[in-house]
Amino acid sequence: MSGGAASLPSPDEIARRLRRAADDPAMLLRLLRRDEGAETARTPAAVLVPILARRPAPTVLLTRRTDHLRDHAGQVSLPGGRLEAADTGPEAAALREAGEEVGLDPARVRVLGRLPWYDTVTGFRVTPVVGWVAEPPAAFRPDPREVAEVFEIPLARVLDPESYRRESGRRGGTVRHWYVLADPRHRIWGATAGILLGLCRILDGDGR
User: Cα separation of 60 and 131, whole Å?
Assistant: First the structure.
């Protein structure tokens, strides 16, 4: 899926496709090219995929984490973190974390649905929550303890399968594979690129 804003799905269409994908586990495995393996103990976490209704075309908000954090320091990520006891579910956790990290008011976010969970090599099981922000603020208020930078990329780029490439390398003696999302200013890779590719494949609708 590529082209201008007119060719992008509406919030209602995004929500419909997310619901359809949630009802078809076999399709999810095919879209994500993921095998059902042995379960391991993982820390539940959630991230928000905030789609901002910018003009002339929607964008997706991302952050660059500060260099001193224990997990994923300096990497590009989506607003989010581990579930806390007071959270009623992934949606509550994702909205809370987005408020804490970038100052996004949860009342501005229309939750459209969830993407399939994503397991990270650092031991988290992340549930991505897709949200539509019809009236995004002109600027965000990043928490300097966690967020070094807030930036946006075009939704059209996220939903274009040609934006992604696969890379591989060794980690702890094991060959691992990950995706990279093309961007002229930032390296968007790993879990963040994988989550956005999941959104791309579900909305693209052809399982490529």
Answer: 10
